[in-house]
Amino acid sequence: MLCIALLALVGLTAAVPAFKHSHGTRLGSSAVDAFKTNDTQIGKQGFLDQNLLWTGGIVPYVFSKTFLNEDIERMLVLKAMQGIENATCVRFVQRTNEQNYLQIFADPFRCYSSYGRQVSSPNGQRIGLSISNCFPNGSIGITQHELMFALGFHNEELRLDRDEYVDINWTNIKAANRDLFQKRPSTAFGEPYDFGSILHYGMFDFAIDPTVWTIKPKEKYGDRKIGQREQLSAIDINKINKMYNCDGSAPIKVA
């Protein structure tokens, strides 16, 4: 169960993990996505290797000292966690002595996260949430976006069947960022393509020319909106519940 005892949630700082996702160039990032793990471990949208999931759906966390004076943003992060908890069996708990845990810190500019449960350094697995860029108008959507990565998901448009639903404008994507749009093999948990996923890129993300699209729904889906960062979609929730066996039929067993 998520606890609101904010003053106890202080961690130390650490080096940025090797495998991370950065939210988008509109936040000033030029980082290349971290699809460097073995492809057999990566899902079409979710990991297949249970060792990259959080044991029993329990995710320990701390706030870095960089959040000490950011009361509003700390509350928004907790609200984002609560939204996931209310819809799934995943639980975020304040870290006591767990070896693997999330350290949530205030990156100067970017919003990013590692994919899945990583073997943490002594100072934890970092999620970077820029105070100025990751909470627009008091929104929790970007935080939930990054938390879904930490739970073990990738972007929706990386599904192997994505070319049936969207077009990619490779000529308007910097060469250094094209790996962000490469499809990955795995499972989508039997769920349909989700234009409304909180993990779907927007039409102009990572654009060389910001007035020209980089990804858009195919003509037959032209009225679909992509890139929302308000809250989890119904399909996002279904996928979390399926990944973490929230119906109780097959409890997760990982090291």
UniProtKB/TrEMBL annotation:
Q: Does the keyword Glycoprotein apply?
A: no
Q: Which cofactor does it need?
A: Zn(2+)
Listed under GO biological process in this entry are:
proteolysis
The Peptidase M12A domain covers: 45-247
Q: Which Gene3D superfamilies match?
A: Collagenase (Catalytic Domain)
Mind listing the UniProt keywords for this protein, alphabetically? Hydrolase, Metal-binding, Metalloprotease, Protease, Signal, Zinc
| EC number from the UniProt entry | 3.4.24.-
> What's the protein called, per UniProt?
Metalloendopeptidase
